[in-house]
Design brief:
Blueprint (H helix, E strand, L loop, with lengths): L15 H16 L20 E6 L4 E4 L15 E3 L3 E2 L5 E2 L8 E2 H10 L1 H4 L9 H13 L6 H12 L14
């Protein structure tokens, strides 16, 4: 007869702290790859993923992204870029458009890149009438709704550093 107190401990019951510590090390190594990709939508598969360069605030999921031309733009941005997961809203928009640092959210840009392609591709120096025309084109031909196009305009304004104001909510398309 063997008493429980005299048995040797089973191998699996070694220090749970050691096992947990090993798991954390593996998890950290697996998660610190140095690159981040924006979630891809089936309709925008031609857009290359943005390359992350540094973690801004790890707890918020924000990652700093190197400045680069984001399609459909043909000019580089005048603002910093970041990547942060977006959330769909009831009116068809996504948030946030910018990260907490004020940098433009590449994942939001990617979402709007097809439906707001005309305003996002307008460029650094449009005439005062061009933004209105581009927004009407997005609504009439690219699938943007009147609720979505103001977000596309805000992204373009930040990306290009436009100093003029257009009120996309007062848009009249002919």
């Amino acid at each position: 007869m063997t008493f429980l107190e005299t048995r040797s401990r089973p191998r699996w019951s070694e220090s749970w702290a050691a096992v947990a510590s090993s798991a954390v090390v593996l998890l950290v190594c697996a998660c610190s790859s140095g690159t981040a990709e924006a979630p891809r939508s089936p309709s925008i598969s031609a857009i290359p993923p943005a390359t992350a360069t540094a973690v801004a605030t790890p707890s918020s999921g924000e990652v700093s992204v190197a400045r680069q031309v984001l399609p459909p733009a043909t000019d580089p941005p005048v603002v910093d870029l970041c990547s942060k997961p977006v959330v769909n809203t009831a009116d068809g928009n996504v948030v946030p458009l910018q990260c907490s640092t004020g940098a433009l959210n590449v994942q939001a840009w990617t979402y709007y890149s097809t439906i707001s392609a005309s305003i996002l591709g307008l460029g650094l120096n449009p005439s005062p009438a061009q933004p209105q025309s581009a927004m009407c084109d997005d609504i009439q031909h690219n699938g943007a709704s009147r609720a979505q196009e103001p977000s596309g305009y805000r992204l373009a304004k930040a990306y290009y550093g436009w100093t003029f104001d257009v009120d996309p909510n007062k848009l009249t398309c002919g």
